C-alpha cells in the first residue's frame, strides 16, 4: 500500500469499484503523487503527459491492485495510458 | 576474498550485492530449479518449471551437449543448467563460474558428481583443457558498465568472445542468452536499476554483440523472446506475492518493495519493447583465413 492519505479511509482489499470510482481514485492518487490539485488532472491526458515516470506508473498500478484486491498486469498503464482508458479496461 | 575485478563489467562486490541477498529469498519466488533468467515457452499452458527446462535444453542442444565431455557454464547461478545437463548426459563434466559466494555454496552443498563450481570470473578462468561447449545465460548483462564508453564496452565483450574461442575446441559452439536494449538506449537506463538492483552493469545492443564477435564467432541462430521474459517475470511476481510474509521476514520491507518494483518495471520494459531477450547460438570460426596472394 502507498502511504498516501487518500487511501486510508478505503477498505484495503476487495473493493468493488465502478469506472467512476476508479477514475476518482486515480485522480486523487496522481494529484497526490504530483502535488497537483485534482481538477487540474485531465482524465484523457496520457500518464506520461501528466508527468508520471515509469516507477510512479508501476507503483500506481500496484497500489490500485491492492485497493481493488485483485491482480492488475504491471503493464496495464501502458496498454491503457489514460485515467479514463485504464478505468474502462478494468471494469470491462 | 581474493577475487580480482574483471577488466570489464561488474565487480564481485557488485554481483554479491544482488545475488547474495540470500538463497532462501530467491527460493521463495524462482522455480524449484532456482533458474534466474528468462524461460522458454513452446505452449502457453506450460508451467514455469517446464519452460525453464525448455530454455536449458535449448542452450544445451546448441552447445552440443550430446557429444560433449566437457561443458562450461559462464555465470552458472545456482547450477540448474548443469544439473539438467547431467540428467541428460551423466558422464559429461560440467564447470560453472559464478561471482556469488552464496551460489557457489549452494551448489557445493548439493555435491553433485561431475559438477565443479568455481568462484571466479571468466576473465580469470584458465582451464587445462578446452571445452566442447560453452553456455552463458543471464550473465552477459554484467559484462559492461554504464560508465564505459561504447568502444570500451564492445572491447570488453570482445575479450569475452576471445576467452570463449580460446577455450572451445575447433568448431565448438557457444550458446548465449542476454537481455538487450531494443527500443531504448543506455542513457535511458533507469537510475533505480543502475543503483539499487544491478550496480555497475549495462546492457548490450544486439549490434554491439554482432560487432564484438565479428571474426571470432558466426551467429548460427538468433531468437528475440521479450514476451517470454515478461511472462517469466509475471510468474516470479505471483510467487513473490504469494510468499509475501516469508519474504518480509527474510529481507524486510524496503528490500521487498525494491524487488516488487524491479519485477514490475521489467515486465513493462519487455512488454513495451524497450528491452529484449536475445538468445544466440554461435559457432567458433576457424582461426585461419584465406591465403592472400603475395603479388
Ligand atoms: C542472472 S544470474 C543467471 C544465473 C543462471 N545462468 C540462470 O540462468 O539461472 C547471473 C550470473 O552471472 C554471474 N556472473 C556475473 N558476472 C560474471 C563474470 N564476470 N564471470 C562469471 N560469472 C559472472 C553471477 O555470479 C550470476 O551467477
TrEMBL record, chain A:
Transmembrane intervals: none
Family matches, as InterPro entries: ACP-like_sf, PKS_PP-bd, PP-bd_ACP, Ppantetheine_attach_site
SUPFAM superfamilies reported for this sequence: ACP-like
Domain Carrier stretches: 17-92
Pfam families in alphabetical order: PP-binding (PF00550)
PROSITE patterns linked: CARRIER, PHOSPHOPANTETHEINE
UniProt keyword list: Phosphopantetheine, Phosphoprotein
Name recorded for this polypeptide: Acyl carrier protein
UniProtKB/TrEMBL annotation, chain B:
Keywords, comma-separated and alphabetical: Lipid metabolism, Methyltransferase, S-adenosyl-L-methionine, Transferase
Presence of keyword Methyltransferase: yes
Family affiliation: Belongs to the CFA/CMAS family.
Species assigned in the record: Parachitinimonas caeni
GO molecular function, one term: methyltransferase activity
Gene3D superfamilies for this protein: Vaccinia Virus protein VP39 (3.40.50.150)
UniProt EC number: 2.1.1.-
Single GO biological process annotation from the record: methylation
The UniProt record lists the keyword Lipid metabolism: yes
One Pfam entry name: CMAS
CDD domains reported for this sequence: AdoMet_MTases
This protein's name: Class I SAM-dependent methyltransferase
